[in-house]
């Protein structure tokens, strides 16, 4: 492993900068944790997996959904053909070209998961494809391949060309792009035959003019040739994965520059070309950002692009071009908003300038933790000290910090946490990011260690990781969570010479006028969330005067808790910028509706929702696993309130007839019950996909509260608990 890559990985993990140090961290953390760290740090939202790359040990394609929102399959055509031939030979089948063609066409590949095809013809017989290869020539080629023995490896040019042409026809039928390996590769590749200029016969064939062709790996060292093809053929697109990060820094930059010499920016895209190890995805993304930044900075300095054009190019190269090409536009969101306000553009402009002048300006880093009463707290250090010292040694903090009350900054009675003793705040570098409303600053979430390398027993983030690991190891389950953030927007006014905070407006539930008034605020909030790779699924005015809700997309519970913290930081900061105060306090006013942080819970196994029943005849519309887990949560609900509703004000909110969960029961789509099962659109009638806990508010530490929910669910699974009958009406009537 290059020393540069080793240093980057060690920095991400906070481990010793040595191969042994990284290996020790990997062994102690496990594949799930390091995968989540790498994919989150890389900012990857989509994985398109080449199914022809086979390893002895590998996750099923569906399991990758635990790490990213969208996973698609790239079908490698030569690999599929060889699998079909070898399977037939194993069962004594005699192949002819006709039977082989029929078998390929009848293959039960799940086309729903396939988003594109891929050819490695460059490795086998070269890219000078004969698009008019005859069936007789292909038949003879098949016979030669079969004579070469088992397992079959297709290297005959006529058969390769035949498979390639038939695959283009399939790509047209399903509207899939065709990826083509071009340029450098392993030693069994004849580089002379991998020049994309050999593809001209394919590109000029009238039958395939509408088939989108993706030239992979920047076609290195034929990057200029690839750029030329993309400039004159409308169907040609370029992907620079593998060239970045495999080449030297100079090689990566020059290769991307050559691609952009002629090719339209809308036809060039990024991929990590990661495989086998999650670190390769992180390194690919990190190098790509560095290289594209360098290339676009030069373009701006030389006058080829304006700052706004460069920012649009970033969005296109890293997200939009691939989304459009692979028809996954509805499945993923861009990391950078495509249409940004002038103010947001100004901030991003400043971000670019900061990067250019990073050696001349001091960048501040906020190290954030959340205490037991849900208060967000931070300490701030200069970036230089953060990088040189804090990442490895952490920052000192009194043990009492986790026991400070919401009313005053002193330890709660009976907490046993006092001003005696100190812990270390160790930054989790996978959460490090620029602050979108203060681009000269960064923020990072911290774990708590009694000393570096030794996790403190009261660390909330580690508590959630620990119980999540138990759920995974005992039951092979992952708990997903999605939060609904309710909060009030308040404005300041003077009354009798005294300042008081009053509701932003007096509109009511889902009032369009309320959103009209708050629209500029929420545009900035959503843009900032997208910048942080957090998906806001829905926004609306709530029932209280000046009250609003933002619902976040569900994800693995560890990520959901982190996202919730950052989302609240965004909402508070943007409101403050507009002269408003955003408060998540459970009961801001006793004469108005309270604010909750309702959480929707589901269970997944190998990427599939296993909370839902497999058919409508199942009990309560949920699986037995789902029922046992939820029964555990219901059984322990009174105890869970210590974590989900942790302060006295929480119970001013939890009152009858306020949809806050004032009773010990559950119901189907019963919003007065503290736990309700949900049947969202798209789920078959009678089947529930998740359950909602309403007795959860903004003063809860999200990591501790989710950990408590998992622990209760585990108890339900271990004891095989069953649910009582649901309450179908207002609970107080029973």
Q: What do you see in this structure?
A:
It is a single chain. The chain has 734 residues and is of the alpha/beta class. It is 40% helix and 19% strand. It has 23 helices and 26 strands. The strands form three sheets. Strands 16, 17, 18, 19, 20, 21, 22, 23, 24, 25 and 26 form an eleven-stranded mixed beta sheet that branches. The protein has a seven-stranded parallel beta sheet with strand order 1-2-3-4-5-6-8. Strands 9, 10, 11, 12, 13, 14 and 15 form a seven-stranded mixed beta sheet that branches. Helix 10 links the parallel strand 5 and strand 6 (236-239). The protein is globular and about 90 Å long. The protein starts with a helix and ends in a 15-residue tail after the last helix. The model is unreliable at 330-360 (pLDDT under 50).
Layout of helices and strands, plus pairs?
Layout: H1 3-13, H2 19-29, H3 31-42, E1 46-50, E2 70-76, H4 77-90, H5 97-106, E3 114-119, H6 121-124, H7 135-147, H8 157-174, E4 178-180, H9 200-203, E5 213-215, H10 223-232, E6 236-239, E7 241-242, H11 243-246, H12 249-262, E8 268-269, H13 278-301, H14 307-325, H15 342-356, E9 364-370, E10 376-382, H16 383-393, E11 395-398, E12 422-427, E13 433-435, E14 438-451, E15 454-455, H17 460-475, E16 478-495, E17 498-503, H18 512-531, E18 536-541, E19 547-552, E20 555-556, H19 557-577, E21 580-583, E22 599-605, E23 608-609, H20 624-635, H21 637-644, H22 648-653, E24 666-668, E25 675-678, E26 690-693, H23 702-719
Parallel strand pairs: 1-2, 2-3, 3-4, 4-5, 5-6, 6-8, 9-14, 24-25
Antiparallel strand pairs: 9-10, 11-12, 12-14, 13-14, 14-15, 16-17, 16-19, 16-20, 16-21, 16-22, 18-19, 22-23, 22-26, 25-26
Helix pairs in contact: 1-2, 3-13, 7-8, 10-12, 12-13, 13-14, 17-23, 18-19, 20-23, 21-23
């Amino acid at each position: 492993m290059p020393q540069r890559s080793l240093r980057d990985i060690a920095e991400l993990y906070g481990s010793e900068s040595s191969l042994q140090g990284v290996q020790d961290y990997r062994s102690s953390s496990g594949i799930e944790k390091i995968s989540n760290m790498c994919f989150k740090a890389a900012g990857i939202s989509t994985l398109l997996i080449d199914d022809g790359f086979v390893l002895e040990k590998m996750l099923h394609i569906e399991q990758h959904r635990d790490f990213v929102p969208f996973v698609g399959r790239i079908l490698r055509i030569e690999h599929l053909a060889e699998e079909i031939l070898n399977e037939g030979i194993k069962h004594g089948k005699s192949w002819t070209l006709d039977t082989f063609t029929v078998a390929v066409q009848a293959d039960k590949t799940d086309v729903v998961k396939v988003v594109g095809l891929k050819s490695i013809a460059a490795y086998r017989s070269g890219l000078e494809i004969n698009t008019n290869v005859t069936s007789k020539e292909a038949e003879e080629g098949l016979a030669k391949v079969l004579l070469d023995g088992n397992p079959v490896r297709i290297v005959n040019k006529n058969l390769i060309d035949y498979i390639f042409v038939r695959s283009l026809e399939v790509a047209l039928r399903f509207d899939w792009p065709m990826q083509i390996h071009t340029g450098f590769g392993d030693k069994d590749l004849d580089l002379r035959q991998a020049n994309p200029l050999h593809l001209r016969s394919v590109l000029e064939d009238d039958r395939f003019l509408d088939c989108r062709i993706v030239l992979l790996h920047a076609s290195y060292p034929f990057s200029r040739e690839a750029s030329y093809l993309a400039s004159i053929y409308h169907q040609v697109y370029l992907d620079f994965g593998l060239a970045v990060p495999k080449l030297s820094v100079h090689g990566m930059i020059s290769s991307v520059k050559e691609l952009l010499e002629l090719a339209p920016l809308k036809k060039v895209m990024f991929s990590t070309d990661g495989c086998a190890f999650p670190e390769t995805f992180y390194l690919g993304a990190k190098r790509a950002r560095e290289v594209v930044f360098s290339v676009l900075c030069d373009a701006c300095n030389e006058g080829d692009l304006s700052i706004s054009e460069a920012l649009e190019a970033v969005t296109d190269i890293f997200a939009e071009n691939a989304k459009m090409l692979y028809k996954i536009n509805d499945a993923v969101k861009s990391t950078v908003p495509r249409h940004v306000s002038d103010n947001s553009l100004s901030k991003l402009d400043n971000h670019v300038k900061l990067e250019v002048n990073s050696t001349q300006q001091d960048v501040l880093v906020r190290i954030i933790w959340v205490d037991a009463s849900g208060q967000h707290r931070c300490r701030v250090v200069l970036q230089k000290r953060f990088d040189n010292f804090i990442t490895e040694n952490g920052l000192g903090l009194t043990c009492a910090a986790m026991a400070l009350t919401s009313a005053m900054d002193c330890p709660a009675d009976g907490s046993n946490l006092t001003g005696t003793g100190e812990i270390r705040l160790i930054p989790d570098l996978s959460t490090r990011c620029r602050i979108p409303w203060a681009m000269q600053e960064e923020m990072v979430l911290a774990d708590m260690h009694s000393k570096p390398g030794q996790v403190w027993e009261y660390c909330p983030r580690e508590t959630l990781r620990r119980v999540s690991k138990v759920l995974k190891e005992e039951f092979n389950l992952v708990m997903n969570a999605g939060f609904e953030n309710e909060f009030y927007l308040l404005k300041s006014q003077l009354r009798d010479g005294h300042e008081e905070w009053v509701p932003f407006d007096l509109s009511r539930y889902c009032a369009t006028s309320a959103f009209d008034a708050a629209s500029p605020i929420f545009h900035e909030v959503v843009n900032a969330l997208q910048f942080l790779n957090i998906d806001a699924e829905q926004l609306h005015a709530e029932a209280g005067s000046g009250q609003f809700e933002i619902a976040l997309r569900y994800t693995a519970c560890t990520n959901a808790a982190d996202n919730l913290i950052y989302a609240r930081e965004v909402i508070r900061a943007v409101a403050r910028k507009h002269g408003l105060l955003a408060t998540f306090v459970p009961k801001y006013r006793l004469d108005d509706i309270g604010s909750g942080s309702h959480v929707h819970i589901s269970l997944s196994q190998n990427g599939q929702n296993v909370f839902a029943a497999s058919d409508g005849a199942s009990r309560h519309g949920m699986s037995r696993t789902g029922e046992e887990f939820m029964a555990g949560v219901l059984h322990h609900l009174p105890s869970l309130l210590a974590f989900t509703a942790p302060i006295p004000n929480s119970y001013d909110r939890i009152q009858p007839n306020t949809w806050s969960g004032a009773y010990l029961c559950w119901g189907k789509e019963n919003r007065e019950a503290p736990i309700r099962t949900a049947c969202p659109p798209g789920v078959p009638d009678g089947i529930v996909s998740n359950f909602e806990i309403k007795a959860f508010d903004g003063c809860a530490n999200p990591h501790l509260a989710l950990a408590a929910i998992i622990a209760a669910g585990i108890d339900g699974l271990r004891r095989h608990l069953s649910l009582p009958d649901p309450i179908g009406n207002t609970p107080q009537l029973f």
